[in-house]
Amino acid sequence: MNACWMRSLAALAGALCLASPADAELVLGVHPFKPATRLVESFTPLARYLSARLGEPVRLHVARDYQTHLDGVAIGRYDFAYLGPKLYVQLRSLHGPRPLLARQQIGDSPVFHGKIFVRADSPIRRLADLAGKRFAFGDPHSTMGHLVPRYLLWQAGVGVEQLASHKFVGDHLNVALGVLAGEFDAGAVKEDVFYQYEKRGLRAIATSPPISDHLFVATHRMQPEKIRKLRALLLSMHLDAEGRAALQAMTPGIHALVPVQDSDYDSLRAVMQTLQALGVPM
Amino acid sequence: MRPGKDFHRRLNRRALLFFVFALVVVVTATGAVVGALQGRFLRDEAQTRFLTELGLLGQLSIEPLLRSDYTTVERLVEAWVEQRHDPMQITAIAPNGFVLASAQNRESVENALSVDLPVEFNGRRLLTLQAVTDVSASEEAVTSIAREVALTAALLVALLGWMLWGILQRTALRPLENEVRAREQKAQELRQRSAELEAALSELETFSYSVSHDLRAPLRAIDGFSRVIEEDYAHALDAEGLKHLARMRAAAQRMGDLIDDLLKLSRTTHQALQPVDADLGELATESLKRLAQEEPQRRVDIVIADGLAARVDVPLMRIALDNLLGNAWKYTARTPVARIEFGARRENGETVYHVCDNGTGFDMRYADKLFKPFHRLHGSDFPGTGIGLTLVQRIIQRHGGRIWAKSAPGMGACFHFTLGDTPPGAAER
After folding, report:
1. What is the reported pTM?
2. Contacting residues of B for A36, CB less than 8 Å apart
């Protein structure tokens, strides 16, 4: 009943957005997995690249939080969006299918991992040692900042209730810094953030199974013709130098944007269903 | 050699330049003191401002730290350093020693002021901000101020100097130059007059010489022919005639003496002085010896002091002493026990010579006529032309000295005189 009401509201809002003069530009929505300033810096080259190739301006919009971002995609506040895997699974679950554009591939495979870590000088060696410790999560909607590590903790027999405390600190960087600064004994982030901070004094105690990486989806607001054109453009970005530069700026180490299908996220979907069954709010 | 107008102008310019230089030094020194005070004030102010702003950064960090928003603190620290112009380094350290953020806008910071600012909330340490800043910015400001002050002072002083020079020229130098020009003109006129006078004197001397010489010829003829009449025609004249003839010859003789004295007086006045070291006592002795030879029958007590050395023109001084001692000799002729004394004493830093006798003396009421030519206080009682003392006075004056006399009738007379240390006009004519 509640979900149905939400869907109606989203449809109404989407209709209102469609009625707005959105044709003048394309809006790319990004979820706040890093500070907004850094996201704007990272995604601006991509927006410029796409603007030049599509022949219409692409404007960047960083959502206030993950939930707002999810709602934005659902109601068509953007034309297309960059999503974390968890958000996509949730979007699909709550609002039905959306046109998939591409997913990112770092290295050889379009999947990524999460890391649970402690400070390098910490006596903690295993996940089971985290009982009674302070733990930092990223955003509640974050795939590697919350859901997957929570699943791993559950598998190790450490529920959040066994922790001395846990806190959602927003983006992945705050998790790493919070552990380094001694506010938390352990935390969880996606692997590229872990590697970024590892040399400052972090040590991983667990690595998640591979999860299909972040992806771009279109919203209902976008015309099919434009969707096809945009998808083709995203999938061929790595073929020219400018495109590769824009991709590198977006996520360091990215190799290309590759085709994506809904089944790529089935493993995550299973994790989420398990957590949902355990009563973890989604 | 008289210094020229250019010399004075150069001297004035040099004095003005020195004045300007001194002024620059004073103003610069004042500027340096003011700069130092200003520097201290700026340093204190910069330090206070830095601490205040660092405290503000700490306050701004509290809210994100409480929300575990460390990236915001990182960005705050970086942005804070980026926005600052003063060289600085800052490190944000977590309570466990982890360096959360570190930013700097210079490779190295000199003249460093180090501050450790703890960021606390509710008594709990959240962060420590370690900052190092460069206080030399204020020193640069001081240097800049000092440079500006020195430059401004130099310009102002130069301007003032230029104005002062203008004022000085208008109010002092030009009037002075005019005055100097007028005086030079007067001096030129005086030199011209002096030359004219000299020419006139020379002419007069030539005239006197020629007049005396020309007068002597008819005088010699009168005397000569009178003698011929006296010798060859004495038998043709009676006693009265011979008496008149004798008077005529005496008058001719007297006129010859007058002409001699006049020529002597003229030479004495214009003859160039040739001063040498001489013993005046010796000159006086010679003079008295000559007098004694003329009248060997006279008995006179003579007292001449020792050591009467002086630098004098000997021929002129001999004439002066001859006259003074001659007068003493002459006016003691009727004194039973005659006495003549020549000596000297030190008085008020100068040597005062005296020639004294115990002769007839004179009345001091007529003392002012003593040295005037042809004035004779004793008429024809004693022989003489009336030129002698005038001659003496001129000789003494030419030696840079002065002469005066003291006497009373029947009580003898004393003539006192001084001689300048270096006779003026020694090289003059």
Report:
1. 0.53
2. none
